[in-house]
Amino acid sequence: MRAAVMHQAGDVRVETVPDPRIVSPTDAIVRSVRACICGSDLHPYHSLPASDPGRPMGHELIGVVEELGAEVTALSVGDLVVVPFAYSDNTCPACRDGFQAACHHGGFYGSNGVGGLQAELARIPQAAGTLVAVPGVDPATADDALLKSLLTLSDVYLTGYHAAFMGGVTAGSTVAVVGDGAVGLSAVLAARRMGAEQIILMGRHAERTDLGVAWGATDVVPERGDEGVARVLELTGGLGAQVVLEAVGLMPAYVQSYSIARTGGTISRVGVPQYSDAPVGGTSLFRRNLTLTGGVAPVRAYLEDAIQDVLNGEIDPGKVFDRTIGIEDTPAGYAAMDAREALKVMIEF
């Protein structure tokens, strides 16, 4: 089969690798229908040291079940399934607490002998706890827009939803979203569905912020740094946002987040932090009683409800995809997202 492998920063190749096989009775083999490139994939694209045989890439997928291990009884061959970006048994204490991405028996694709999901076939460990079937949808005849929206449920939309959920967005609240990437835009959509009254989107790419406005952003702030902080304070009567959703993962975004948060407010981070140390003291969080929350999204916790929302036409998160490629063009897809020529690239099989 063909699969995307990153050998070092900037070097993604599509290679022929062995087909995956059932290793454990809890495994499933899934044939890919749609996969995609994540903004978080760009972090190793900028920094990965040279390695051989390279890192298998990809963690977002919808596909059709091809084979099931003996212990996977709730799924059937032929099911269209959404594959969350982390696999989990969905039964351990962490999973029962709603944090499946921290499952005691789970893990992430592209490591520990598990391949990536930018590939024609994938082995899914802990399949019974991980995979969720989409009822009544045949991928051979399904509308492309529906498949796009289902694909976002493997990560990007539900990561944005997780930011809003952990931030405690409620009806009538004032929310600021830092970052106009696919996760930030998804956070706008989620915040609007949770009833936020004012949603300030901090981003400077009009083709992206236009989608944010269509999804519920009431204000767009293209300025950064002190100018951006001043503009948000102006829009909120000098108070700041009750909830700040940080969807970037870089230190300037974190600093901007606590600088625009209202006293007593909450900062919810879902951008993968590219730093280990961050201010949490008197001038950042402590003095103004700010809460810092967020983290790796437990996509599996939200998946059944989100699938129904998509099937019912209540949300259309697939609009974040603005380019579609075949697996052979995956290196060009990375380059396009890195150059900000594409918001989010979908891989069609």
Automatic annotation (TrEMBL):
<dbReference type="GO" id="GO:0008270">
    <property type="term" value="F:zinc ion binding"/>
</dbReference>
<keyword id="KW-0862">Zinc</keyword>
<dbReference type="InterPro" id="IPR013149">
    <property type="entry name" value="ADH-like_C"/>
</dbReference>
<dbReference type="InterPro" id="IPR013154">
    <property type="entry name" value="ADH-like_N"/>
</dbReference>
<comment type="similarity">
    <text>Belongs to the zinc-containing alcohol dehydrogenase family.</text>
</comment>
<dbReference type="InterPro" id="IPR036291">
    <property type="entry name" value="NAD(P)-bd_dom_sf"/>
</dbReference>
<dbReference type="GO" id="GO:0016491">
    <property type="term" value="F:oxidoreductase activity"/>
</dbReference>
<protein>
    <submittedName>
        <fullName>Alcohol dehydrogenase catalytic domain-containing protein</fullName>
    </submittedName>
</protein>
<keyword id="KW-0560">Oxidoreductase</keyword>
<dbReference type="InterPro" id="IPR011032">
    <property type="entry name" value="GroES-like_sf"/>
</dbReference>
<feature type="domain" description="Alcohol dehydrogenase-like N-terminal">
    <location>
        <begin position="25"/>
        <end position="128"/>
    </location>
</feature>
<dbReference type="Pfam" id="PF00107">
    <property type="entry name" value="ADH_zinc_N"/>
</dbReference>
<dbReference type="InterPro" id="IPR002328">
    <property type="entry name" value="ADH_Zn_CS"/>
</dbReference>
<dbReference type="Pfam" id="PF08240">
    <property type="entry name" value="ADH_N"/>
</dbReference>
<keyword id="KW-0479">Metal-binding</keyword>
<feature type="domain" description="Alcohol dehydrogenase-like C-terminal">
    <location>
        <begin position="182"/>
        <end position="304"/>
    </location>
</feature>
